[in-house]
């Protein structure tokens, strides 16, 4: 880092949106939308819930993107999160737990339809979409940031798709992103849910640039006045060293196995302490979620477009609603917080191929059809 950059880190002001914004604020305040010069600004505004994403929030973001796409005065979109902890810790899984246990999951399916549609739209948004991925960026937070055209991480970034910990499978386009990471890095991150820092996020294709967190207010101020291509070179720095490159040999060897059981066996047999620790971590996850996740990532590699992968993810997510591990995982992690999930089945050996295949069957209320919608949009644009 140059001396001038160091000076700017020291002298920068804190984020403009304080931690004191109440999480009980009306849904209209859960996403702050405004224009500043040439920039449309989106701020997730539930800091006490680590900006967990809800259905109304996804709707609000989509509405703002529609308005700004048509507004010639808005040349760039910038999204960030209120508070000091991070952009977004994911979808509101407490809401999903309530919906599944009392409403059968209908509200969750409706949320995912709109959320995944939003994720796909972000990936094809015609104006620069700048995601400030500072702090914690997980699950649904990845969906509203890592599909953007300009993805900025900082020295504080912790990026993850931790779904297997709650008996779920990476969604919001996560299997698309991870399936395209070098070697088997994406498989490793998908199964373990491990969080990565700035350098490894760049290495895995989850981010594009590193900017010191203290410079983000100045960066956003300049984006309101100048094009992204003119602003970024003044703030971007080299990423510090990551950890994944030094682990590639055993990661690529172990995760190339055909089954989760064989992956665990290879991890245990490598002699690498980090690999053995990873095997032990995998054995704490939902066996069903692990097998469904491996299948989802492998299938995503062959599907091609983000839209096709997200159509698959919608099937998998809907199937998870009817499986016991999803509700149990949320209970153990965020409801009772005992961190002692009782997975059913409890072992990898008990999860059959037929059970995994059911995750990829069409849901009872129909598929999400993003590919058809994209084809129609492209036809209209011609």
From TrEMBL:
Q: Which residues form the signal peptide?
A: none
Region spans: Disordered: 1-29
Catalysed conversion reaction: 3-hydroxy-2-methylpropanoyl-CoA + H2O = 3-hydroxy-2-methylpropanoate + CoA + H(+)
> Pfam families, per this entry?
ECH_2
Segments of skewed composition (Polar residues): 1-14
Query: Which SUPFAM superfamilies did the record assign?
Result: ClpP/crotonase
Q: Which GO terms describe its biological process?
A: L-valine catabolic process
This chain belongs to the protein called 3-hydroxyisobutyryl-CoA hydrolase
Which organism is this protein's natural source? Streptomyces malaysiensis
């Amino acid at each position: 880092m140059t001396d001038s950059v160091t000076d700017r880190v020291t002298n920068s002001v804190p984020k403009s949106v304080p931690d004191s914004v109440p999480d009980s604020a009306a849904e209209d305040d859960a996403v702050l939308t405004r224009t500043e010069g040439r920039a449309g600004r989106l701020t997730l505004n539930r800091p006490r819930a680590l900006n967990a994403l809800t259905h109304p929030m996804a709707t609000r973001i989509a509405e703002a993107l529609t308005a700004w796409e048509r507004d010639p005065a808005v040349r760039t979109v910038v999204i960030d999160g209120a508070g000091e902890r991070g952009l977004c810790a994911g979808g509101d899984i407490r809401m999903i737990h309530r919906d599944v246990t009392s409403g059968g999951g209908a509200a969750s399916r409706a949320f995912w339809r709109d959320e995944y549609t939003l994720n796909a739209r972000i990936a094809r948004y015609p104006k620069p979409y700048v995601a400030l991925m500072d702090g914690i960026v997980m699950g649904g937070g990845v969906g509203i940031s890592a599909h953007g055209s300009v993805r900025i991480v900082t020295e504080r970034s912790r990026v993850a798709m931790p779904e297997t910990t709650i008996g779920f499978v990476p969604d919001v386009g996560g299997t698309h992103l991870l399936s395209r990471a070098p070697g088997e890095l994406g498989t490793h991150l998908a199964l373990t849910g491990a969080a990565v820092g700035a350098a490894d996020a760049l290495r895995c294709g989850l981010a594009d640039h590193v900017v010191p967190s203290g410079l983000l207010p100045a960066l956003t101020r300049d984006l309101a006045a100048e094009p992204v291509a003119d602003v970024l070179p003044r703030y971007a720095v080299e990423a510090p060293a990551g950890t994944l490159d030094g682990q590639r040999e055993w990661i690529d060897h172990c995760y190339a196995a055909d089954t989760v059981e064989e992956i665990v066996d290879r991890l245990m047999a490598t002699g690498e302490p980090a690999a053995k620790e990873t095997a032990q971590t995998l054995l704490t996850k939902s066996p069903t979620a692990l097998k469904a996740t491996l299948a989802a990532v492998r299938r995503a590699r062959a599907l091609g477009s983000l839209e096709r992968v997200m159509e698959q993810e919608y099937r998998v997510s809907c199937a998870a609603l009817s499986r016991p591990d999803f509700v149990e995982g949320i209970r153990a992690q965020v409801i009772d917080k005992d961190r002692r999930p009782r997975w059913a089945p409890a072992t990898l050996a008990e999860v059959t191929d037929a059970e995994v295949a059911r995750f990829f069957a069409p849901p009872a209320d129909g598929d999400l059809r993003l590919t058809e919608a994209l084809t129609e949009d492209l036809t209209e644009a011609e």
